[in-house]
Amino acid sequence: MASHVRVSHKTKNLPKSKRRWEVSYTDPLTGRSRTKGGFTRETDAKNWMIKFEDSIREQTYVDDKAGGVLFIDASRQWLNVRRNLKDRTYNDYKGLLGLGESKRPEEDPKQLLLRNRFGKAAVSAITEDAVQEWVTDMERAGKSGGTIRKSFILLKQVMKEQLRLKRVAVNPCVDVEIPKFEPWALLNDEDEGRRLEPEEVERLAEALPHPFGFLALFTAYTGLRAGEVAGLQLRDIDLAAGIVRVRREVTDINGILAYDEPKSRKAKREVTLDPYILEELRAYIRAHEKEAAEWFGEREDATHPGKKLPLFVGTAKGRRGKNPVTGKFDVIRFDYTKLLRHKAWYGRYFKKALEAAELDSTYRFHDLRHSYGSWLYDAGVDIKTISRMMGHASVETTMAIYVHPDRDKANDAVRNALGNLRAGSSSRRGNVVPMRRQA
């Protein structure tokens, strides 16, 4: 039905000065007939109708009532239908949108969180200037480029959905300028020194109790992330081929450990094992399978998972058993039905082992992964292979964050190159006969 202007039925019998005009039109979203009233002049009603028809033709129509939806409600609706998100990603988005246990307004005085800045605003009232101001405030507050970019992209996705639902005429994020995020911007002097040498890793492994000593050694020689190490099962180890297949990781969702997909598509990979670590792994698996068989054999309420047994399992309640030799309660007990909680063993043993091994106390578990990339780079392995082994999305990430070549070697290489160039230039000058200057 075409749009048309008419006098309101309620006022058609009133004097002309008191009559009201209305526009009858078809809602483009529902196909139902609707009425827009309250116009005191026929001209105003016609102007509204022309504007409405132009918005339909230009595909910029916005539902006046729908545009009043608050951002907090719109973002919750947007997140609830994202069924394909990984649990970890879902919780990250939930935190950024402020839909979970978020900071209260008084704890976020600059209103940097999306919920505190835009939560009570109607989606149609969020403007490009407001978004740009929010981005600028985050920069001034010292937020990293990566953090700003992640929050901004999330806002842009939510507003894109509002555009599809005809709640807004344009996405206010389209032309907003955000700081560039470059992986190498994460580097600083402290990061560049975060690598251990093989001898230091050996000392660390010896200072850690079983099996965490081997876990540290294994991580340093495979470059796996902490969650990927915890996610390994016996079926992921191919001792004959000398490879480890990364197919899952363990993630902590609200205090509950669960298997999840790896960090990215390229994080699913096969990692080649060094002959040294391969033999250590072979011995560890033999002992691990024997201990697991004994543990399950003593329990009727637990079933052995076979090759789905985690390579590293979680600790049992009480954690420590009595040492029959020393009489001390220093034997770590394990529950072979539990997944390994990285933060628990890291906080309980890793820092103490650094001190016992007389290593820098600021080393992190993740530095074992850094070391792996650096060792391969120093050994001359091409950067694409290193990137693939480490499961990075791009070679630039490998170069910028994880590869720290030996500075002395780099400096010597530069000096030698320039020295050879200078020597070659001198020899060429010796063969040149100077030209006589003409009088």
UniProtKB/TrEMBL annotation:
Residues 1-20 are annotated as: Disordered. This is Tyrosine-type recombinase/integrase. Residues 191-415 form the Tyr recombinase domain. Pfam families: Phage_integrase (PF00589). GO terms for biological process: DNA integration; DNA recombination. Coiled coil: none annotated. Gene3D superfamilies: 1.10.150.130, Intergrase catalytic core. CDD domains: INT_ICEBs1_C_like. Belongs to the 'phage' integrase family. SUPFAM superfamilies: DNA breaking-rejoining enzymes. Residues 1-19 have a biased composition (Basic residues). The keyword DNA-binding applies. The keyword Acetylation does not apply. Keywords: DNA recombination, DNA-binding. It comes from the Bacteria. InterPro entries: DNA_brk_join_enz, Integrase-like_cat_sf, Integrase_catalytic, Integrase_recombinase_N, Tyrosine_recombinase_XerCD. One of its GO terms (molecular function) is DNA binding.
